[in-house]
Amino acid sequence: MATITRQFLMILLLVPQLLTTLAQTCSNHTFSDNKLFDSCKDLPMLQAHLHWNYIPSTKNVHVAYRAAQESTGWIAWAINPTGKGMVGSQAIVAFQNSNGSMTAYPTAITSYSPSMQPSSLSFQVSNISAEYTKGEMTIFAIVGPLAKETSTNLVWQAGTSVLNDIPQGHSTSGPNVQSMDTVDFHSG
């Protein structure tokens, strides 16, 4: 009897963790417009996921970055070609603007207090768009052509407020300062 009770308790403890893990995986996500991506990575912070297709012939990467977010907040995904961390990142930011439509644009992060205004990046980015559905914001873009390296430093962020169609600062502790990783777009 004690063995059955222990097993039952273990199942009760593990099932919620398993369901949470499955819900947060990138591999079971279906995009609203049936876009398909060959590779994906569950990012370790901010309930975020990166999906991509690397095109070797052009060295372009078709990207979808998605993260849980309230409609009043914002998300950003970036490549830092010069190092790790926020400063030096070349970002794409997305938010729901004052007229209710989604806005997405590139912005270079040059300091710890960036303007978050649209600006040019140090590499090409095109076909930028964003959507908000079911409590998630998603950024779509084509990045590249990439330089010789397909392995790169990633940074991503989320903030809770947008004022006059400008994303406002994010938390400077916890997951926001830990939202860094690397990815190799070619090998996954």
Which second-level CATH architecture applies? Sandwich
SS field, number of helical segments: 1
- Under CATH, the topology can be stated as Immunoglobulin-like
The portion of residues assigned to helices is 10-25%
Please state the CA-atom Rg, rounded to the nearest Å. 18 Å
Structural shape: globular
User: What fraction strand?
Assistant: 35-45%
Biggest sheet architecture: 5 strands, antiparallel
Q: State the CATH superfamily name.
A: Cellobiose dehydrogenase, cytochrome domain
Structural class: mainly beta
List unreliable stretches of 5+ residues: 8-22
| Order of helical and strand elements | HEEEEEEEEEEEE
Walk me through this protein's architecture.
This protein is mainly beta. The chain has one domain (33-183): Immunoglobulin-like. It is built from one helix and twelve strands. The strands form three sheets. Strands 1-2-3-8-7 form a five-stranded antiparallel sheet, with no helix packed on it. Strands 6-5-4-9-12 form a five-stranded antiparallel sheet, with no helix packed on it. A two-stranded antiparallel sheet has the order 10-11. A hairpin with a 4-residue loop joins strand 2 (48-55) and strand 3 (60-68). The longest helix is centred in the N-terminal third of the chain and has 22 residues, at 2-23. It starts with a helix and ends with a strand. Residues 166-188 are annotated as: Disordered. It is found in: Membrane. Keywords: Electron transport, Membrane, Signal, Transport. Residues 166-181 have a biased composition (Polar residues). InterPro entries: AIR12_DOMON, DOMON_domain.
